[in-house]
Amino acid sequence: MATRRFHDDMADKPASSSQTPDVTPQNYTHDDAQYSEPRRQVSHKRTNRNAAHMPRTLAQVMGEANDMVVRGDLTEYVPLPTGFDPLDGMIGGGLRKTELILLGGAQGIGKTIATLQIARNVAMRGGQFAFYLSYEHTETHLMNRLLCLESVNPPEIDAKGGIRLKDLYDVIIAERAKSTLRGGDSGGSLQGILRENARTSMALARMNRYADRLILVKASPAVTTLRSIREMTARLCDATGGNVTVFVDYLQKVAIHPERATDEGEKVTIVVEGLKDIALALGVPVWAIVAADREGLKANRLHLFHLRGSSALDYECDIAVIMNNKYHILSKEHVAFNPYQARQYRDWVVFTIEKNRAGRAMQDMEFQLHAPFFAFDPRGQRVQQQLIDDKIIES
Questions:
Q1: E strands along the chain, which residues?
Q2: Among candidate residues 107, 138, 129, the one with its CA nearest the CA of residue 219
């Protein structure tokens, strides 16, 4: 399997190195020390990535593209759906290689929920891998969130059969306690508990369908640098034939070294330029969460210029999506006319495409958030109501 090749690459590191990890992506060390190349033959895609930094004639580029099509490799032309239907329709079908996509929003709006769900949707597709770096949560916490998500089975969203995080913890603790009282470990493993419990068995089965293709890393804001992200992504590209989508949660926490920044704006510039370079050089889509600044948190409606950092966020990204709670940005006419109906919109989040290099910008769509289960209904719809601050003149 592709992930086994990744593991084998990691095993090729010198045994004497203090950074030698277990051969699992979860235990990959996040130091930015140089790693020796794997001793096996480098892939054709890796060779092409190295050649991308050298001058080539248009005829050479055309020849390479022709060879790819002849081999049946159409990845440069076929977008990768996010699984969020209206969003895919507005960005040309999904994510494309070499593109940097930014997702911004206030705290608690559902940025991690949406991003992890999209990573899950990518990994659900045969032959595709999602690489999720979280500076906020452990791998185990993300796994538990995915179990809750799978319990409602998007896009069906059967909330009646859903399991909340506390319920999940209660099931595991109660079943493990029963096993201990019986005087043995039989049935006391996590997999056994989840498989045998009626409320979690289907969620586990669904998660296992992509468990080998979703790679999780608990990143560190102190040592997980752009350099280490690039190195890990390059090794995954070699192991998977380049079929990797990178998710960074979140951009402002990415460490930079040996570079030094005088302030957060300069640091964000370095990070966003580095993530864009990873997308271009390695030929992968990169999706990054971006936090809002203080002015944005106080604004009636959050916009791209409210994201924390510098104007490089706007310049470097190919697509920028901004999330707002629908209730907070509804035109006051709607709220005054029918306050009860307006309150129903508190569980809806408006995704606005504020930048789109390949299509129309300032497009609003909405998705219902099922926060207890860490899931959005990905079917969504175009926003029909009037929103505040709905007209933005782009400079």
A1: 100-105, 129-134, 214-218, 244-249, 286-291, 319-325, 348-356, 363-370, 375-376, 381-382
A2: 138
* pLDDT, position 47: 44
Coil vs helix vs strand at 362: coil
Query: Which of 45-54, 107-116, 118-127, 352-361 is predicted least confidently?
Result: 45-54
Phi, psi of 173 (to 5 degrees): -65, -45
| Block residue for tokens 């977008």 | 79
Distance of alpha carbon 120 from alpha carbon 328, whole angstroms: 29
- Cα separation, 20 vs 110, whole angstroms: 36
For residue 344, what are its two tokens? 């129903």
CATH architecture of 2-13+40-64+85-163+199-382: 3-Layer(aba) Sandwich (3.40)
Q: Where are the domains of the chain?
A: 2-13+40-64+85-163+199-382
| Rounded Cα distance, 329 and 350, in Å | 9
Report the pLDDT value the prediction gives residue 339, as an integer from 0 to 100: 64
* Token pair for 101: 């996509």
